[in-house]
Amino acid sequence: MFLSVCIVDDMEAISSLEMYVVDRNAEWLGVPRLVLMENAGAAVARNVVGRFPGARRVLVVCGTGDNGGDGYVAARHLHGAGLWVRVVGLGEPREELARANFEAVRRLWGVELALAATPLELLALQDWFLWADVIIDAVLGTGVRGALREPHATAVDLMNAAPAPKVAVDVPSGLDPDTGEVRDKAVRAALTVTFHKPKRGLLAEGARRYVGELVVEPIGIPPEAEVVVGPGDFAYLDFSRRADAKKGDHGRVLVVGGSLEYSGAPMYVALAALRSGVDLAVIAAPEPAAQAAKAYSPDIIAVPLEGPRLSLRHVEKVLRLAEKFDVVAIGPGLGLEGETPDAVKEIAARVKKPLVVDADAIKALGGSPVGGPQVVYTPHAGEFKALTGVEPPRGLRERAEAVREWAGRIGAVILLKGRYDVASDGRRVKINTTGTPAMTVGGTGDVLTGLTAAFMTKTRDPLEAAAVAAFVNGLAGEEAAAQLGFHITASDLIEKIPSVVRRYAREDITSPRP
Ligand SMILES: NC(=O)C1=CN([C@@H]2O[C@H](COP(=O)(O)OP(=O)(O)OC[C@H]3O[C@@H](n4cnc5c(N)ncnc54)[C@H](O)[C@@H]3O)[C@@H](O)[C@H]2O)[C@@H](O)CC1
Ligand SMILES: [K+]
């Protein structure tokens, strides 16, 4: 296949958040999470049979999350392999997948299942812990938060006190999957069977005495899931709001664009940003464009710049204005006449805010691009050539390599638009597959710029901001086209943004009302 080799470093460890993202994106690619859980549990059972061939009696201790779900699957497989299996559940699972596997075990009359939701109920099962030849720890995995609560802490004590070797599912319970820290106590496993890639904490200095031997098992996550943009990527963006929030807390975007000839472009950027969940989107535009923007919509605030186009005398004003904003988006509708390219160069070099560079601003900076950890370029193929001097290659794999290389050279994020959008920060690559040929209509790129700028206020990771922006832009286009066919405009996309974002983003209110 086309991309795994160049992009995925197979020996890389993974954080619990990255694992969450990959798992959701595998589902987006059509691999159901229930299948991943089945593969995980089956891999644990296989390892138990393979590593402990003399074992006849297996105790599986299951938490209430998906780690417990893996445990129930393992129990079913071990039972099928002819072993004597007992299962202790620390309560009934709440989530759908673990619940389904719990129910499947409950129906097996050959498996003894007990629920113990309190330390006392667990202690009553102490002889089960002493009875086992092998104990499977499926209490907590990557979803652990904070110090162990009860009955989980007692379950860990009982497992550690039992003489049988312990096999940890994904992570020894009690061990932090990201840091390897143990707050209070953790299961001391003889063997840890972890899934897809080693979780970072498992490789930490002090973790070894808890992890024991480490086995990494594939569970059917395709390499594409590592690079595709999908619903999982929303986990990198924070859409939550505090109950006592005030105007401006959720992002302020300044759009520098427009000219006598082009007044629509900066409006698309600003309106898309507003629909993406920022509080303020202000346009700084040459007078005719500023006037048109104000007349068009009461949602838009426009600061006029004297004259028909951006020129050097506006630079100080724009830089002063930028101080009040979280992100500056520059380019759409500026044109390349007169002093505009020089003004763009000045602003890009001196602005101290996260920056999205699009359209004519990319061309203006072509040959001497400005880099920075919070700078994003959003070129199409032609603009990519203006930026780098080279045509983007046609094949996806080569494209991904080229974008990564140039992002690294410039020291910024590049989002190259196309049939598949390719984004990189010089290290990681993300590929977006949403979108439709109906989106060739003018303005859809401006919408993407607005989305990118808005999402940069929701994360410190500009690659993810750009990637999720491309994903939302493409889906908004697909949904507009589903209704209107090849007759959509950029405004139709903007209208679709809220419903697309709400489908995937968590929009919690995070603090109690005052
Ligand atoms: N992400 C993936 O791709 C896959 C994940 N799988 C399994 O799913 C696991 C993650 O599942 P979840 O996200 O449901 O998380 P976990 O099952 O690790 O833990 C979540 C549960 O533990 C409770 N809990 C959290 N912290 C606690 C604490 N300190 N004391 C007591 N209880 C605590 C929560 O209330 C919740 O019920 C992985 O470790 C792995 O075993 C597998 O099914 C395969 C696929
Ligand atoms: K575990």
From TrEMBL:
Binds 1 potassium ion per subunit. PROSITE patterns: YJEF_C_1, YJEF_C_3, YJEF_N. Residues 19-227 form the YjeF N-terminal domain. In the C-terminal section; belongs to the NnrD/CARKD family. It comes from Pyrobaculum islandicum (strain DSM 4184 / JCM 9189 / GEO3). Keywords: ATP-binding, Isomerase, Kinase, Lyase, Metal-binding, Multifunctional enzyme, NAD, NADP, Nucleotide-binding, Potassium, Transferase. Transmembrane segments: none annotated. The lineage of its organism: Archaea, Thermoproteota, Thermoprotei, Thermoproteales, Thermoproteaceae. One of its GO terms (biological process) is metabolite repair. CDD domains: YXKO-related. (6S)-NADPHX binds at residues 66-70, 141-147, 170, 265, 333, 380, 446. Homotetramer. This is Bifunctional NAD(P)H-hydrate repair enzyme. It comes from the Archaea. Catalyzes the dehydration of the S-form of NAD(P)HX at the expense of ADP, which is converted to AMP. Together with NAD(P)HX epimerase, which catalyzes the epimerization of the S- and R-forms, the enzyme allows the repair of both epimers of NAD(P)HX, a damaged form of NAD(P)H that is a result of enzymatic or heat-dependent hydration. Catalyzes the epimerization of the S- and R-forms of NAD(P)HX, a damaged form of NAD(P)H that is a result of enzymatic or heat-dependent hydration. This is a prerequisite for the S-specific NAD(P)H-hydrate dehydratase to allow the repair of both epimers of NAD(P)HX. Its cofactor is K(+); Mg(2+). Coiled coil: none annotated. GO terms for molecular function: ADP-dependent NAD(P)H-hydrate dehydratase activity; ATP binding; kinase activity; metal ion binding; NAD(P)HX epimerase activity.
